Amino acid sequence: MDNPLRSGQNRDMTHDADILIVGGGLNGPALALALGDAGFTVTVIDALPAGARGEDAFDGRGYALALASQRLLKAIGVWDKVADHAQALLDIRISDGRAGEGPGPFVLEFDHAEIDEGPMGYMVEDRFLSRALLDGVMAHPKVTLLDGETVVAQEVGPASVTLTLGSGKQLTGAMIVGCDGRRSGTADRAGITRYGHDYGQTSLVCAINHDLPHNGVAHQFFMPPGPLAILPLPGNQSSIVWTETHDDAARIQALDDEAYLEVLRPRFGDFLGNISLAGKRFTYPLNLTVANAFVADRLALVGDAAHGMHPIAGQGLNAGLKDVGALAEVLTLAKRRGEDFGRIDVLERYQEWRRFDVAAMVSVTEVTNHLFSNDNPILRGMRDIGLGVVNAIPGLRRGFIREAAGLTGDLPKLLQGRQI
Questions:
Q1: Of 173, 182, 302, 317, which one is least surrounded by beta carbons within 10 A?
Q2: Distance from C-alpha of 46 to C-alpha of 50, rounded to nearest angstrom
């Protein structure tokens, strides 16, 4: 029986779709829309039922989208569906200190007014972004969604790939894209190994109400166990990403709401007035996991399936959307040239494009986490001076602002707001 959520039924004579995407979170649907716009037929296989994504209930989970990521979402027709629910990031303030003592003497401030392009980015709740991407996939004539399905086997042939689903159904295509997260079954089945390590840290995630307006300012407060990010949401609400050691995070998460707030308050401070919890509370153990190859014959990895890193720089989804833009561009240009876009020599262009940027981001997050997540007095003095120096040099500061906005490096066209 056909899945009632299927769309885009026109397929070529040999394949169910040009491209089979495994994973229906955020990167998978974004890639499907980009490829569908370029004329590819695409099938997205999502393990979750469609109704499990984009629920209406507020839970406070959100994403800090760099300006370049917002441009990609606009280019694939998604941004206009979430714009009314987005909060512009107008200022980012970075400081160092201890819980209960407030920030150190030096604060690094990134003001969007120092660049011409506008806000550095936007905060968007998961529920709105997930629903907008899902609705886009459902409406696109070139894209098919198979929800509630898992992949149990994959086979790569000389000119095609075959996926076997848990239901017994088989799908064929010219290539597979794994958008299936840090424990990517697509990568495992292809024999792609990974490297990485556990950070010994867990992020506690929640949302809060506060009395005073945030004015679009995001805060990153570095404490010895790990950073506390305060990310503005629409209205007098903010999303909190709060990092502690595994043991302390488990102890804090087990507390009732009021006791939880009593632990958070001295870390948070009183600059936004009284605070209260809004929505649910979550925990996410942190680890580094990077695939040793982003591609194989007729296969590519995108997002966390290729690289999962520390959230300290807020680049998880932004890095994934860079992958989306780069892979869509490589495949589209290859198709226009009449190339077999699933061949390894074509896919290696994507890997070469993304590997250096990913390696650089991993290095920055590793160094930053080691430098700031400690209470060493010598390192504390060095990093405070470093924050002050960067803040005092306008040209250097603007470079960091453009980096935060995702405007540096060899950007794919979609992240420039252009069509491929």
A1: 182
A2: 8
